[in-house]
Amino acid sequence: MDVGIVGGSGYGGAELLRLLAGHPTLKVRTVAARGAAGKDLAEVFPHLGMTGTLVPAAPDQLDGCSVVFLATPHEASLDLAPALLAQGATVVDLSGAFRLGAEVFEQWYHLEHTAPDLTPASYGLPELFRGQLEGVKLIANPGCYPTAALLALGPLAGLINPATIVVAGLSGTSGAGKGLREDLHASHASGNAVAYGAPRHRHTPEIERIWGLLTGTDDPSPLTFVPHLVPMSRGQLCTVTATLAGTASPTKIRDAYERRYATEPFVTLTPDGVWPATTHLRGSNAAHLGVAVDPRTRRVVASCAIDNLTKGAAGQAIQAANVALGLPETAGLPIAGVYP
Fold first, then answer.
1. Choosing from 65, 144, 238, 304, which is the catalytic residue?
2. Which domains does the chain carry?
3. What is the pLDDT of residue 120?
4. 3-class DSSP state of 256
5. pLDDT (tens digit, 9 = 90+) per residue, 194-221?
6. Which of 71, 104, 176, 256 is most buried (CB neighbours < 10 A)?
């Protein structure tokens, strides 16, 4: 099955190429980019050991591709997705263009949405929405922070007071993409940790919307999300805290996580007293989850670690595409991380 990748010169594109090289069914036919068009892959990403010329990011360059992954900015995804769908491709978008309704998108991204009829697209988090992905043509790949936050939150539906949810996120510098930015200079980022984007980070409405779907409400309570940049190249950790509802007990909370993720190939629940570590997930499509209840405050603490470029981006995009296309969900995706 022929595959196209747009944004093939960025971190997401590189990770898609790395993972798809080992996929038994999906074979990369076309790699497109904008600024890097005309360059050879061996020049852009020597670590892949691949050759081939990057072509311009235009729909006609991707004609004939059964699946197209858009590892592109929101504006580019808005421009390309409708045309690619019209060509018959299954489109997996790694940007935020189709995760929210068009009106909410415009409020938080400050960008006109030019394809409102396509929003919100099917949400590509198989562990929580697998049944809604089968056979769909447009998949909105979750953001990396929402992936970790929602995997941590998912089992808590009905067990916590939603008005008390706080999400603290930690991410490596690759989460900001490959572009140059002053705060990402080595001399600035090394040895430094800083909160950013609060209290209106654009992933906030995404987490709230999906949490609303999980809890069956169209008007979910606002939650607090605070992301932090930490000095590592890749990796992400989200820790969720919330007050227990009613008679929820530590045993009931633990049981909820075990039931939810018992059969999930990419989710591991750590033993009591053991907390997830980002270093164990490097290069893996897995997620590690730890959970505990503080009886003194009656608050639950749930922590999820992922690789932001794999489970938080390219790996999850392939996982969702596998489900949509009726392929084995784990095809081409590593569970074990690279350690140390």
1. 144
2. 2-120 (3.40.50.720), 145-308 (3.30.360.10)
3. 98
4. helix
5. 999 999 999 999 999 999 999 999 889 9
6. 71
